[in-house]
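An example makes the point: we let one protein speak, the chain in one-letter code, the fold tokenised, and here it is:
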Amino acid sequence: MKKYLLLISILIIGCSNPKTFILKDNKEDKYFVQKLIDNAFEKDLIGESPLIVINGIPFKYNKKQDTILIPLKKSDIITLNFLNLNSSRIIYNEKENDGAIIIAAKNRE
């Protein structure tokens, strides 16, 4: 019985999804980043709560929330890249992150 409970627990944890990251944009473009994040999550590039870095500055968000609003529009994003867990821990020296999403965005003035 304990083996079955352990197996079910592993399946539930292993199949969990990342947070939902949405942009401050219109309905069609709101989930642009989420599609890329889901793809990176499936390829094991990032975990459930990745560090988000916008123009070199870590974006702080409440990791207990399921939906995270990124204060950008699709048209603001120049590039979007991912760092795996080990690389992000070395570069950003944060032990708790699950990889990183690196966003280069247009500066608004």
In short: Residues 1-15 have pLDDT under 50 and may be disordered. Residues 2-14 form the longest helix (13 residues). Residues 19-105 form one domain. The two ends are 61 Å apart (CA to CA).
